[in-house]
Amino acid sequence: MKYFKIEGPVKLKGEVSAQGAKNAVLPIMSAIILYDTPVLLSNVPQVVDVFTMIELLKILGTKVEWKGKNDLLLDPSTINRYTAPYEIVNQMRASIYVLGPLLMKFGKAAVSFPGGCAFGPRPIDYHLHGLTLLGANLEIDRGYINASMKSPTPAEITLNFKSVGTTIHLMTTASLIEGETTLINCAQEPEVVATADFLIKSGVKIEGAGTNVIKVKGVRKLNNLTEYKIIPDRIEAGTYITAGFTTGGEVMVTGCSPIHLEPVIAKLKEAGASVERGNDYVLVKPRENKIKSLQIETQPFPGFPTDMQPQFMSMLSVAEGLSIIKEGIYPNRFAHAFELQRLGAKIKVIEPTAFIEGVEKLTGAEVAGQDLRGSAALILAGLIAEGITTVFGIEHLERGYENFQEKLQSLGAKIQSSS
Fold this sequence. Notes:
By secondary structure, this protein is α/β, with parallel strands linked by helices. Helix content is 31%, strand content 26%. It has a four-stranded mixed beta sheet, covered by helices on one side. The model has no long low-confidence stretch (mean pLDDT 95).
């Protein structure tokens, strides 16, 4: 098992550049199944989830070539399979994104039930219900979703939950269904807007992306789009500015979109942070006082993101007074809380809420990350803990952070990895 050894405490100082958004590039890579000409994606992060999607697209017949460190050329003209096998799909929940595009390309598809981070059920029922309203016939057999679509039909679909994945998946599928499809109660996250922008540039008429209602006027065939740049990763950027403030240091993240980080910045300011923003950077300045306690409820965008909840819990473990975090997206996403207790944090979890009583200091210990953001949170805790903290489960971290160790080292962190 991979691990990091971190020597703390340390004050981070310096500048890092934001990577491309993992949660934007994955659905866009899936949407390229609908094309018949090559597309070059730039600002693609080299993270495990991207590598997993590449392997899946290769199995389907896509030609894939890295043209630079973060430039990825995808040629879907050779796609000749419509089955997404278990051995790939079980590694990543975003694999479900290929179902709709395969249906539109072949009129049929077979996709294994997807896997992903282990912090509670995230059912794909919303995806499947929406696809049936668009004309798909679905059967579940031995862990596979067997789908066919003879007569694609535009529809009005009301989502039961503001699901990012469902919003993106149905919007992408509807892009090749002639007529107008209306999606109601949509997720408004930047990754939804980015996928819509990609499809719009491909000739699809989409209105309302980033709002509650999205209207998609599908086309018979997508226009050739030779290049597209992936938006910056707001969660990665948020992790670094939170780390800077937590350690009492000074960290600038460049190449990011501050407007996407507004919910995080607002809470950092409430905790006592001094934050400077430009068009494409965020700077957190050294703090003079202790971190103030907070009350947070994670919500769909533009609310506070669930993917920043673990990092903030690490920060609040050494804040003044009692902080309360209510998890409004995944009620049992608190595995990291019990690992933080091993470092001396005082946290009581009564799902869906965690109560964090700030302590004077954390002390290094052995801990294990159970998911992507929880692993990042434990590393942040290790940066402020006295002594050596060993964080196992780094394979989770590698799903969404590119060069995490190297970036932290460039900021002054004393962090080493297992060989």
